[in-house]
Please model this.
Amino acid sequence: MSDEDLELLKFYHEVGVDCTLTEGEEEKKVENKEDSKAVQPPVTQVANTGKDADSSVTRWNDTKGGKEQQTMFPSDWIIEARKLASKCSSVDELRSAVVSFEGCEIKKTATNTVFSDGNPNAKIMLVGEAPGGNEDLQGIPFCGASGMLLDKMLGAINLDRTKVYISNTVFWRPPGNRKPTDLELDMCRPFVEKHIALVSPQILILVGGIACYSLLDNTKTISTLRGRFHTYTNQYLSHSITTAAIFHPAYLLRQPAQKRLAWEDLKKIRDYLQ
Ligand code: URA
Model:
């Protein structure tokens, strides 16, 4: 048995191996839910003007003469998010801005804002999809079943949460764990972009199809984006960041045969970091 085979077996042992399909069967059986967002048409609620009266919010602004009423439409909140994110010069400031941001509907049904976990000085930053039930209750990203598998995957390449920094594409749990809408992604993206720029990691790891859709390429599936490195940049970065896409652990829990490909991706990341 080659060293590579041994490593793969060790990885299976660490993250759990739950099926023994051959390669051909694997390809046939996989209905890649991970890929679904990239092939969906955009959510029209966002794409139009963002001036849908049903989703407007009235807020009171402080002015010199007292209080002034302002109707905020979704498109206004996206602009507001960008303004707020642009002003932040530290991760702590950004956290406060996100916690007090009132534009995102999913905040209303969430228990906590889920901002980040891990080491903000790490050279590895992971961005996942959205908080789930456990994350919502504890305010910590990836602290449920997916998080346990993510920790094992990181452990397999000698990483843990003291060596990585973790956040998501949205900061609140979408009700029923549905996927975030385009509007929710658009509203959180200014904060996410600033987050990445403030942490300025050596490598950005996009965990799952939604993170790829929101930050890398909304026309390609994760299956086509994984397995190679990309360059990521945004308006706050003065340099581009090497970026990898990996399957989401929730997807790997549903499709354990894909752990073999996940291991290929993790090895590439490990080699890049060495
Ligand atoms: N899945 C994610 O993408 N993020 C979390 O924080 C938890 C589960």
User: Anything to note?
Assistant: The CA atoms of residues 57 and 72 lie 5 Å apart. Strands lie at 57-63, 66-72, 117-118, 124-128, 164-168, 203-207, 229-232, 241-246.
